[in-house]
Amino acid sequence: MRIAVLEDDKDQNKMIQLWLEMGGHSCHPHLDAASFQKDLKRSSFDLLILDWELSVSSGIEVLEWVRKQIDWRIPVLFMTARDSEEDIVYALEKGADDYIVKPASKAVTLARINALARRSNSDNPQGETLVFGDMTLNVRQSEARVAGELVELTDREFQLAVMLFTNVGRLISRDHLLETIWGITANIATRTVDTHVSRLRQKLHLTPEHGWQLKAIYQHGYRLEQLNDSQVA
C-alpha cells in the first residue's frame, strides 16, 4: 500500500516509516500538516496515518480537511497518545477509520493497516470477476471483456484497468500508478503512464459514447468516471 504519514516527532516518524517498509508498504512521511496537505493535493494514497497532537494545526483539523477536500473513501488511521474514550469516539465520528493509542507496537500497527486494506477492498475482492456495466475484469485469469468479447491487454494494461475501475470517480495520481504498477518510486518525468492510459482508453472504449470518461487531470493524474444517460453522447 502507498501510505502517507503525518507525525511531527522525528523519532516516531522514522520508526513508523521503518515498520511500514518492513511490512512491504511504501511510506511517504511528513513532519508537518502543511507539507502533508501539499502532498495530498498533488498525489494519491491508499491509506493515511495521522497523529493528533501537532506543533501547528491538529490531526483532527487535517482529518476534516481530508474528508471535505480530498477523499471521503480513503482509510485514515489515527496513532496518538490521547487515550480517553471521548477522544477515540470524537476522532471516529470525525471520519477516522481506526485508532491506535501510543505507544504502539509494530505487529499491532501492521495488523490494523492490513485490516483497513481488507475492508477498503471488500467490495472488489481479488480473484473474482469484477463487473462494470458491459465490462468484466477477471482478476484471477487477467482477462478483460467488453460486451462479452475478449480484449487483449498486456499485464500492465490489465493492472491499470483494475486500479482505475476499482477507484471509479477518484483521482489517481501519476506517481501512485507508477509506484503501484511499475514499481517506480523515484520522482521522475515519464510518459509511460500516459501511453498505457491512451492504449487502455482505445482498447476498452472508455469514451463518452460508451458511458465512460477517462480524464487526464493536468499535473496530477487520471480519473475514470461513469457517465449517466444524460451525459452519454
UniProtKB/TrEMBL annotation:
PROSITE patterns: OMPR_PHOB, RESPONSE_REGULATORY
In-chain residues carrying the UniProt-annotated modification 4-aspartylphosphate: D51
Taxonomy, superkingdom: Bacteria
Keyword Phosphoprotein: yes
Example of a GO cellular component annotation carried by this entry: protein-DNA complex
SMART domains: REC, Trans_reg_C
DNA-binding region(s), residue ranges: 127-226
Listed GO MF terms: phosphorelay response regulator activity; transcription cis-regulatory region binding
GO biological process, one term: regulation of DNA-templated transcription
UniProt keywords, alphabetically: DNA-binding, Phosphoprotein, Two-component regulatory system
Protein name: Response regulator transcription factor
Organism, as annotated: Sedimenticola selenatireducens
